Amino acid sequence: MREAFRLLFGGDAETWGIVTRSLGFSLFSTIFSTLPGIAVGMALASRDFPGRRALAAVVNALTALPTVVIGLLVYSLISRSGPFGSLGFLYVPAGVVAGQSVLAFPIVASLTYAGLSKLDPRFAETLVTLGAGPYARMLATLREAKVVLVAAIVSAFGRVTGEVGVCMMLGGNIRFSTRTMTTAIALDAGKGEFERAISLGLVLLIIALAVNLALHAMTPREA
Amino acid sequence: MKRLGLIVLACALALSALWAQSPANPRLKLATTTSTEQSGLLSAILPAFEKETGYKVDVIAVGTGASLKIGEKGDCDVVLVHARALEDAFMAAGFGADRKDVMYNDFVVLGPASDPAGMSKAKTALDAFALIAKAQAGFVSRGDNSGTDVKEKEIWKAAALAPKGVAWYKEAGQGMSQVIVMAEQMGAYTLADRATWLAMKDKSKLAILNQGDKILFNPYGIITVSPAKWPQSNYAGALALMNWITGPRGQALISAYKIGGEQCFYLY
Question: DSSP E strands: which ranges in B9-147?
Fold first, then answer.
């Protein structure tokens, strides 16, 4: 345990490299999934179109997809022998970010949808009455629901930071390149070397707590 | 104006000189057995290769069977593995361009010091395996088509045994050091490559209970992924690593690599 703290607070370069790399991957994949996620969530919430309920069900179901299944799917796409093989994404950071974006997208979409559905229906009606065009209506809705959107994004960030399946399958757990906190923990524990595993576990615990505290603080009191 | 042109030219020349020293495509993906990584060998020798040639090697440590599959699909440039039969099949199918012997050591049969199967008296590895089966003592198999797994299956077959789906025979599907940890926790036997064992033995309560049989020989080979099959692969880098690791510099570093004073890999 003391060794774990030493690695963490003594500024062990490789341990901190793993931490910053993990957070970098999560940050990028959250960013990439935010726009499409919010767009789909808003589309689902704002108007009726054929297949809307089916799409909502699919998006909700995707949030429960195991990370190894997403890993497998993206693997078959970005392997050199797959359709996007020429990108050379497998076993490089870009591949991990691609997989994690696929993981984060339905989370952002479904939470955005769920949050926007809770907005007072009179809000949209009022905007129409006031003569707002579609673009202005969208902006006003986004502003009104910004807490919902930020909560969706933070949730997605927490989810991708803590996942191991996508990183392991698409990144290959390559030292100094694609080794993240979760894959490093899996490797170290497997080798019976628990010191660094514990220190990285502590970081993940702190991130999980921070994410949940942030979400808690954002949730309106009356809800 | 003329002077500016000269400066630009000088800069361009200096840059191109730098480029000439570092390879056109410096990223190199090496898929390998878990033993070369978990024994610490690769982190001991690859920095020298990277420094001398300018390549940067990304190591994917997954086991021999999986490494060859990754090579087959064109997702790595070079493989370092230890299962000759699988390597020959890989070459015969045209997935590899060149193959060279790198080094060797041997497998050891590990088990709890109490030795419930009484196999310390066994002369050959076949006897040892037969005693484990007879006593139905626990055995943890890699179960992942790795080089060690292939060797283990070969020994069971040579001993005319086929333990599968029986309670005492556990297929873990994990890397070598994970399996050593599991065997220790379960008080079971397992087959391990010597290098991973040397890296693990200070932390493990298991002991070597059988070794030295000819069947336990463990040769490692390096194979470049065929650029004819996968034109995008970094064939120049793969060839550079192959020549370096089988050349005087790599070979010297391999034989100098020791854990606790014991040599891990031997040269041909």
Answer: 27-32, 56-61, 78-81, 96-112, 139-141
ipTM of the complex: 0.79
Residue pLDDT tens, chain B, 268 long = 556 565 655 555 555 544 445 788 999 999 999 999 999 999 999 999 999 999 999 999 999 999 999 999 999 999 999 999 999 999 999 999 999 999 999 999 999 999 999 998 899 999 999 999 999 999 999 999 999 999 999 999 999 999 988 999 999 999 999 999 999 999 999 999 999 999 999 989 999 999 999 999 999 999 999 999 999 999 999 999 999 999 999 999 999 999 999 999 999 9
Locate the chain A residue with the closest alpha carbon to B35: A191
Q: Do B200 and A192 touch (CB under 8 A)?
A: yes
Chain A neighbors of B27, CB-CB under 8 A: 92
A172 touches chain B (CB under 8 A): yes
3-state secondary structure of B144: coil
Does some domain include residue B171? yes
d(CA B84, CA B101) in angstroms, rounded, equals 10
Residue B202 lies in a domain: yes
Among the listed residues A105, A83, A106, A87, the one whose alpha carbon sits nearest the alpha carbon of residue A95: A87
Give which of B25, B28, B29, B77 to mutate to test A binding, by max A Cβ within 10 Å: B29
CA–CA min distance B6, chain A (Å): 38
CATH 1.10.3720.10 fits A25-178, yes or no: yes
Looking at the fold, whether B37 and B67 belong to one and the same domain comes out as yes
